[in-house]
Amino acid sequence: MSERCLIALGANVPSGMNALERTLRDALARLENVGLEGLSASRFFRTPCFPAGAGPDYLNAAASVDWGGSADEILDLLHRVEAEFGRERVQRWGRRTLDLDLIAMGQTVLPDAQTQDAWRSLPLAEQVEKTPEDLILPHPRVQDRAFVLVPLAEVAPDWVHPRLGLSVAEMRDALPKQALEEVVAL
Fold first, then answer.
1. Residues 36-56: pLDDT tens digits?
2. Could you say which of 3.40.190.10, 3.30.2130.10, 3.30.70.940, 3.30.70.560 is the CATH number of the domain covering 3-107+144-185?
3. Around Cβ 71, how many Cβ atoms within 10 Å?
4. pLDDT for 54-105, tens place per residue?
5. Which of 51, 139, 148, 167 is 20 to 30 A from 105, comparing alpha carbons?
């Protein structure tokens, strides 16, 4: 049985001679070629680098796909595609040739509800210093990030966060107006 998986895409460093838009288009095509089915992608959005000052602005998008394997298997697949585009995991929240984040996998909560809730409520200062050892789903920061929610609302507006009980559209609409205005469609 397959699950609908939500993926955030981003890039802020050109991969070789490719422009950022070409990188995201090629990455979406590659996702279809490696076994992710039913791909639906958002438009592309220019967004400020996060955290502020960490590098050039990003180009972001979101995709929704069907996947019949485990969360660890799709995460491994996403990491392999990133590597094909020159992604090196050197610095957390650093510059990226390609970033593919698994945001959610259906209503799966990993590794468990208590851990997901703890990471979701982690203060920003601790988020910078700590890295989870296990995959956490849904992504613990999805509800805070306009650069994820605005594109995601184009492909999965009705997906409901299993711990918050809010849809993508509701989480997006709860963000500050300034954060939403920083996400500009191409």
1. 999 999 999 999 886 677 678
2. 3.30.70.560
3. 20
4. 678 889 999 999 999 999 999 999 999 988 887 565 554 455 678 899 999 9
5. 51
